[in-house]
Amino acid sequence: MVDEAAVGRIFREESGRSVAAVIGFCGDIDLAEDAVQEAFALALRKWPQDGLPPNPGGWITTTARNRALDRLRRDARGRELLGEMAVLATEDDLGEVDVVPDERLRLIFTCCHPALSPEARVALTLRLLGGLSTTDVARAFLVTEDAMAQRVVRAKRKIKAARIPYRVPAAEELPSRLRSVLAVIYLVYTTGLTRPGLCAEAIRLARILVGLMPDEPEVAGLLALVLLVESRRATRIRPDGSLVLLGEQDRRCWDRALIEEGQAIVRRCLLRNHPGPYQIQAAINAVHADAATAAQTDWRQILALYDQLFAIAPTSVVALNRAIAVAEVHGSAAALALVDELDLDHYYAFHATRADLLRRLGRDDDAHAAYQRAATLAPADAERDFLGRGGRGAR
Questions:
Q1: At what angle do helices 101-111 and 4-26 cross, to 10 degrees?
Q2: What is the pLDDT of residue 76?
Q3: What's the pLDDT score for residue 354?
Q4: Residue 242's pLDDT is what?
Q5: What is the pLDDT of residues 353-373, one digit of tens each?
Q6: Spatial contact of 59 and 43, defined as CB atoms under 8 Å apart
Q7: How far is CA 172 from CA 155, 179, 264, 326, in A?
Q8: Low-confidence stretches of the chain (pLDDT beneath 50)
Q9: What is the CA radius of gyration of the chain?
């Protein structure tokens, strides 16, 4: 039975492929989006009567490409564009097609071009590759639908005005451009920790990217990282909505399948011996996953990994996370001295970390003030409630 829900699932799975393929055909993002939407609208009418085609994604792509071609032929500018195309498939070639994976890869790099703002990169990636509606993306990032729509429109205009190429970067450009792509996918995931639905989308995008770039160790590292963090999702929040710290989580409820998959990827990354930030962060999470209890955590190994991470990514946030490991190995006073050197006053995790260290050192008044400051900056209700109670979850 092919119902609306089934077509919806196929849309989420296949729309990114189809949009990428039609953009590769016609070179116009808006036209490609419209054509794919029209193809799915037609599928909603035809498939319940005719049944699911053998290759639903290929059917959608072929139908969308035909719609785009019809639109180009009707429109004066479209006819001009057709004339400019170096290669145009004949109608005899427009059978049901399998989408070339490189089209999605080109689209990922276009969406994540450094000329676009970080917010625009995320919005376009979710809109075009993730198959999310503007309403869904706006809800996930707590902005109005109009604001998100304007963000997407401005990004598309920027791509057109700046003539951002629809291609995979050349070898010499790839390292810097790939960082932007990975950062967008990781931002989608971390945002999803407090916005339902986005984590699965980020994992799906990471899997797509691994399939498209299997020889890039940082791509594999990102997938391992999100899988290992995701393995603990069910234990992060209590039934009453309060936050559970890593050390207090019920490790029996961690998803062992995700842990095993993530750790296997980390081991393969280690064999390549080309460490990068995402691989090292994945390795840190793999060490946490190895410990049957919080007390058995190998903090010295984690601190060594943070030393390695800070050497290649010397950011204040990495230094803050490293200080947590320092506290476990060398004591809270040593960690607090490091934290107090950081310029992160507007970052809630900075104040939460300070608060915990101050509490351990018996400086309760200072700890209370730091917890309250962290609570005012926290991005989600669970964090705000937890920090407002002085870092103690409801029991």
A1: 80
A2: 60
A3: 97
A4: 78
A5: 999 999 999 999 999 999 999
A6: yes
A7: 25, 13, 30, 37
A8: 84-100, 394-395
A9: 24
Q: Residue 173 has which token pair?
A: 């450009």
Do the Cβ atoms of 137 and 127 come closer than 8 Å?
A: yes
* DSSP codes joined into one string, 306-330: HHHHHHH---HHHHHHHHHHHHHHH
Measured over the CA atoms of residue 203, residue 124, residue 318 and residue 365, the dihedral's sign is: negative
pLDDT of residue 216: 93
**Cα 330 from chain centroid?**
34
CA distances (Å), 16 to each of 190, 199, 202, in order? 21, 17, 13
Cβ-contact 23, 107 below 8 angstroms: yes
pLDDT given at position 13: 77
pLDDT recorded at residue 80? 56
Q: Smallest Cα–Cα separation from 229: which of 205, 254, 204, 207?
A: 254
Q: Which residue from 203, 178, 299 is spatially nearest to 255, judged by alpha carbons?
A: 203
For 74, other C-beta atoms within 10 Å of its C-beta total 9
In sequence order, what DSSP letters do the residues of 176-231 get, joined into one string? HHHHHHHHHHHHHHHHHTTSTTHHHHHHHHHHHHHHH-TT-HHHHHHHHHHHHHHT
The amino acid that residue 322 corresponds to is R
The contacts of residue 37 (CB under 8 Å, 6+ apart) are: none
Long-range CB contacts for residues 159-165, cutoff 8 Å, separation at least 24: 159/29, 159/110, 159/113, 159/116, 160/29, 162/115, 164/110, 164/113, 164/115, 164/116, 165/110
Residue 341 is predicted with a pLDDT of 97
Q: What is the pLDDT of residue 133?
A: 78
- What's the CA gap between 134 and 145, in Å, rounded? 6
**Residue in the structure block whose two tokens are 């993730």:** 130
Alpha helices in the chain (DSSP H): 4-26, 29-50, 56-74, 76-84, 101-111, 118-124, 134-140, 145-161, 174-192, 198-212, 217-230, 256-272, 277-290, 299-312, 316-330, 332-339, 348-360, 364-377, 381-388
Contact 30, 67 (CB under 8 A): no
Give dist(CA 32, CA 39) in Å, integer.
10
